[in-house]
């Protein structure tokens, strides 16, 4: 018997090993086997629960769609206000105080300086084969030149189609054909704990991939006006901004925007703008040139935050739930007011989705345009109610908001001369040198008037005026409140409407 066992043991081990190898080979082949969708596009297989995730397919599929962006802002002359050192000024110019040289307000003076040329880099994602690229607003804002380098090292000059500071998104365009556009998935389907890749160009290193999981969704950091960030522990560093956050199938689920760090370098978590917000912003920038943003017309905060605040003041509160949005104030004439929602109510759902926090509500509303309908579920005196509201823009109507240009004013402008500054005792402003048919003429502003402030912002050059026109045209109050002075020294104040 002992001899039989001595012969059988090696044989059984070989058989067991053969079965193990066969099983392992089958598992590996199942793991890497690719499938096709209805359009014959290759897609990654789903990985059984508990199995290691192979992210090589996702990296290979997404890398060609992520680009390197070089930002250049040329040197320029700027007028700045600097504090004067009375002793330094006396020894360098002992008569300056008598003859008014370097005059300013309260020990300050205006000086013209030349700013250095600025260069920076970031990332972007090709979303269409004809050259549209999504990135962050902070990657391209203020750029004089943008150079895009593809994964295959081809270079293109890019132009800005539109930007949105509120979501920190921008759309740029390069002239190309049959470019490797990424597949866009809905971030709504993303689950906490799901594997993701951050693809970009961090720290000057091109074509870089880092892996992690979705740590949380609908995070709010207070950095942008509209936030519902995807939080991930995939390493994100400087240069990753504007790059892709992709799922295990290599599909775009977010645009990497920022990291949370005490040092400025990666220390655990990064944040991406979800594609549910990105897709709407991109569509609006293409169609209208500016984002058509919808509002419910409430001010509020998360229920837990409100309850904690009340407890800290010694008040006991029972709202009937600890999840949702506590409505602190309802805007007159807004969508919520029209639907009968009142201060003290708690919003718990929108369009059939549960709402636990303000960022979750923001993400749903951010997909809408003024005039769209939305169903809101809320608690009034702890009783559930449901209403359909018509969302409005910030100006309180459902019209398309136009991003106005300086041309709407119907005038030509130039920076004032040193002679004008000296004669009028002013340090900045732009002169109206021609008035055509437009808003200036309608308001009664004539040639020779010097614009100094618009909506309480100093106007030192034409770019400052352009900025205020664009901001006011898309804001709650589309009016320019202009302050200035005529060549005679007479000061004047005008209100210039930008509405149709």
Spell out the blueprint of helices and strands:
Elements: H1 2-32, E1 35-36, E2 42-43, H2 56-62, E3 66-73, E4 77-83, H3 86-92, H4 96-99, E5 108-114, E6 118-126, E7 132-135, H5 137-140, E8 145-149, E9 155-164, E10 169-174, E11 195-200, E12 208-219, E13 229-232, E14 244-247, E15 252-260, E16 269-274, H6 275-287, E17 298-302, H7 303-312, E18 325-330, H8 335-339, E19 346-350, E20 353-354, H9 358-365, E21 373-380, E22 383-390, E23 411-415, H10 418-424, E24 430-435, H11 439-443, E25 450-454, E26 457-458, H12 462-473, E27 479-485, E28 491-497
Enumerate the spans where pLDDT stays under 50 for 5 or more consecutive residues: 1-33, 90-105
**Radius of gyration over all CA atoms, rounded:** 30 Å
Helix content: 10-25%
Give average pLDDT, whole number. 84
N-end to C-end Cα span: 103 Å
Structural class: alpha+beta
Largest sheet: 6 strands, antiparallel, barrel
Q: What is the molecular shape?
A: globular
**Beta-strand residue percentage:** 25-35%
The DSSP helix count reads 12
Oligomer classification: single chain
Strand element count: 28
Main sheet: which strands, in order across?
3-6-7-10-9-8
Overview of the structural elements:
- This protein is α+β, with helices and mostly antiparallel strands and 500 residues long.
- The protein is built from twelve helices and 28 strands.
- The strands form six sheets. It has a six-stranded antiparallel β-barrel with strand order 3-6-7-10-9-8.
- The longest helix is centred in the N-terminal third of the chain and has 31 residues, at 2-32.
- It starts with a helix and ends with a strand.
- The model is unreliable at 1-33 and 90-105 (pLDDT under 50).
């Amino acid at each position: 018997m002992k001899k039989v066992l001595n012969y059988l043991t090696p044989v059984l081990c070989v058989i067991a090993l053969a079965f193990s190898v066969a099983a392992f080979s089958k598992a590996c082949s199942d793991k890497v086997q690719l499938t096709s969708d209805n359009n014959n596009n290759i897609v990654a297989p789903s990985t059984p629960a508990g199995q290691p995730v192979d992210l090589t397919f996702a990296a290979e599929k997404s890398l060609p769609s992520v680009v390197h962006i070089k930002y250049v802002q040329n040197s320029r002359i700027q007028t700045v206000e600097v504090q004067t050192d009375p002793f330094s000024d006396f020894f360098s110019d002992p008569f300056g105080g008598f003859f008014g040289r370097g005059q300013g307000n309260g020990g300050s003076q205006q000086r013209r300086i030349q700013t250095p040329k600025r260069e920076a880099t970031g990332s972007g994602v090709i979303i269409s084969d004809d050259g549209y690229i999504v990135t962050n607003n902070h990657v391209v804002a203020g750029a004089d030149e943008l150079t895009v380098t593809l994964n295959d090292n081809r270079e293109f000059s890019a132009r800005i189609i539109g930007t949105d500071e509120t979501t920190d998104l921008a759309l740029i365009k390069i002239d190309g054909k049959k470019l490797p556009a990424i597949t866009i998935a809905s971030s709504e389907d993303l689950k906490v704990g799901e594997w993701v890749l951050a693809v970009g160009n961090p720290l000057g290193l091109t074509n870089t991939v880092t892996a992690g999981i979705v740590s949380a969704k609908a995070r709010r950091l207070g950095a942008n006006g509209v936030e519902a960030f995807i939080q991930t522990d995939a390493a994100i560093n400087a240069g990753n901004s504007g790059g892709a956050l992709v799922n295990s199938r290599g599909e775009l689920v977010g645009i990497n925007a920022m990291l949370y760090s005490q040092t400025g370098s990666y220390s655990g978590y990064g944040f991406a703008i979800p594609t549910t917000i990105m897709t709407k912003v991109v569509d609006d920038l293409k169609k209208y040139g500016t984002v058509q943003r919808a509002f419910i017309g409430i001010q509020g905060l998360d229920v837990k935050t409100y309850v904690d605040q009340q407890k800290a003041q010694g008040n006991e509160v029972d709202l009937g739930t600890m999840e949702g949005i506590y409505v602190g104030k309802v805007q007159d004439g807004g969508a919520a007011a029209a639907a009968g929602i009142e201060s003290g109510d708690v919003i718990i759902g929108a369009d059939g989705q549960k709402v636990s926090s303000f960022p979750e509500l923001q993400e749903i509303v951010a997909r809408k345009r003024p005039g769209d309908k939305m169903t809101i579920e809320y608690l009034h005196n702890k009783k559930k109610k449901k209403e359909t509201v018509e969302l409005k823009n910030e100006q309180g109507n459902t019209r398309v908001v136009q991003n106005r240009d300086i041309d709407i004013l119907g005038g030509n402008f130039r920076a004032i001369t040193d002679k004008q500054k000296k004669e009028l005792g002013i340090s900045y402003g732009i002169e109206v040198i021609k008035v055509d048919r437009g808003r200036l003429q309608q308001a009664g502003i004539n040639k020779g008037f010097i614009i100094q402030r618009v909506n309480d912002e100093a106007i030192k050059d034409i770019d400052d005026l352009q900025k205020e026109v664009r901001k006011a045209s898309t804001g709650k109050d589309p009016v320019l409140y202009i302050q200035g002075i005529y060549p005679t020294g007479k000061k004047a104040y005008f209100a210039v409407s930008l509405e149709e």
